Amino acid sequence: MSGKPRLTYLNGRGRMESIRWLLAAAGVEFDEVYLETKEQYDKLIKDGFLLFQQVPLVEIDGMKMVQTRAIMSYIAGKYNLHGKDLKERALIDMYVEGISDLMQMILMFPFSPPDAKEKNLESIKERATNRYFPVFEKVLKQHGQDFLVGNKFSWADVQLMEAILAVEEKISTVLSGFPQLQVFKTKMSNVPTIKKFLQPGSPRKPPPDAHYVETVLKVFKK
């Protein structure tokens, strides 16, 4: 396979959105195939495209890659967003894992029962402001550099930017106590590839709505 990477997922954020962010940050154009029915999903499994019977699926460099973390690690390595040595890579991986924990809460939020939404939103706010954002505020303050690791734009920065914006959509004042993260967000917004991704008409997906939730439940129903 040659040409652009091909992404197979639903027409919404989910687990593919971080992959879209990373490819866009690297300046890589990609094509997308959207699953809309359970039959499409079952066919991918039957045809042997999904190693663990799960999407996201990314076809890149002749490979059919699954598992979000593996896909992103490959993209980060290929486009020099994974640090200059093992120590930098370890730091980036640690930061990415931490942000992923927060993103998992955000990912599951649209599927909360109506009576649990307020409680789950409070949990996201509590985790963001007490556990995750303070870490990155401290890192940026201590080394006084523009980016999280080695003063160079990396996968960790992309993940953090995605998380900040995702939390802000739900809690607009979440960065009020984090001046370093406010500066970081502004700088990241002006990185040319990120700036382009944040413009209307880019492959970035809107926040999940009821239709997206319904489609997810329909495609993946047991």
TrEMBL record:
Residues 3-83 form the GST N-terminal domain. Belongs to the GST superfamily. Alpha family. Signal peptide: none annotated. InterPro entries: Glutathione-S-Trfase_C-like (IPR010987), Glutathione-S-Trfase_C_sf (IPR036282), Glutathione_S-Trfase (IPR040079), Glutathione_S-Trfase_N (IPR004045), GST_alpha (IPR003080), GST_C (IPR004046), GST_superfamily (IPR050213), Thioredoxin-like_sf (IPR036249). Pfam families: GST_C_3, GST_N. The keyword Transferase applies. This is glutathione transferase. Its EC number is 2.5.1.18.
